[in-house]
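Hello Y.,

Per our agreement to keep a running log of every chain we model this quarter, I'm adding this entry. I've kept the format consistent with earlier entries: sequence first, then predicted structure.
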Amino acid sequence: MRKNVSKYISKIFPDKEFLRNFLTLFTGSTLGQFIPFVAGPLLARLYVPADFGLYALLSSTAGLASLVATGSYEFAILTSDTDDEADSLSLLSSLLSFIFSCVATLILFLMVVFAKPWTNSAFGYTWFLVPLFVVFQGVLNATGYRLNRQQKYGVMARGRLLRAAVMTSVQLLLGFLSLPWGLFPGMLTGHFSAAAYQLRSVRCYFHSAFRSFTIKNIKVLAAKYYRFPAFLMPAQLVNELSIQTPVFLLKSFFSTSAVGFYALPQKFLNAPVALIGNSIGQVFFQKAVEQKKHSESLAATTLSLFRFLFRIGVVPFSIMLVFGDSVFVWLFGDQWVQSGLFAQMLSPWLLFVLSGSPISKLFTVLDKQHQSLWLNLVLLTLRVAGLIAGALFFSSQVMAVFLFSLLSFLYWVFLTFYILRLAKVKVLPIIIETVVTWTIVVLPMVIVRYWLM
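Predicted structure for the entry above:
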């Protein structure tokens, strides 16, 4: 199978090194995705929508906190001038996440002592796991980018496979024990396992950084790479906040179960997007930095990557667009029919996230973090407006998710082709090619759907 995939991709990517590195991460990510995919239907029967809603609230909050904790200094590891700087940046971002987590734990403790918001809920105390997640995520990111700099993609692939296996196993175990809060501890354990595994592979770099890590060194690094916490971190935070907006607003306007109905398709559809997109995005990031340093053109690599990702995503996401409601009922049971409807709405947006997210690394490569920040602010505004309009004017969670998905899709279409233009790709022919390809794929499915009805 890998040989066939390699033969197909080689027609798109003439760069053999890029191809080899991508396939290494792609294989690990695919195997890692296969585990939760197979376990998904069982998890949907072990946990109810409200359990998935709590999981979404915890994981969303943890994800946002993780972005703030490190100041996005881990992204500078790849672009730093020397390996010594990369080592120090890896250590710095890990220590920042630890300090942030200690402060967050103290705040939670004070809230329990004085405000006592969770005295009647055992679920409330699972929030103390969020700071632990921030530490593990910080180490995972720092070690991941350090491994990327050294092109140790085999270690990264095995780490992702380990994370998926441990996470799914713990979630299933706690589900069989009838513990409704078991989804987030499973995720936490998976991240810990992967972080520990990757840390073993880069411990020599951390030891080296410890020996030269001084206050003066911190100040020099902070000043040199100020654009990352000043622009990239806010842009990343705003983007993640806009992604998680439905979780918080659906909880505010409707219920935890409504969050669960949204969280299942978002988790199910976004998992391959995140794993495949992050895998190839890591390789593209390293390759783009290298091409920029040697004054090479980014156009061919960027366009090849977009075409490949769109082609591998257009069929499965078109299937979900047309048949998503039936697929979810078949996979997860009758109680998840509304999730199937949400899956249909989310599919076009996630297709362009898969196609465009990896090449968005160009904002960092080309030192355009400020543009990324403003664009993400626009996206956040659009998504909040769509969700509030659906909740207030239509009093419908379905309409709220539909408007969120529609505006997200339109934004990502614009962003993807804007990034291609930044890479100096001639955009108009690619737009026509994309529309024609998608129409050829989705039109027969629509005809079959109406014929079956």
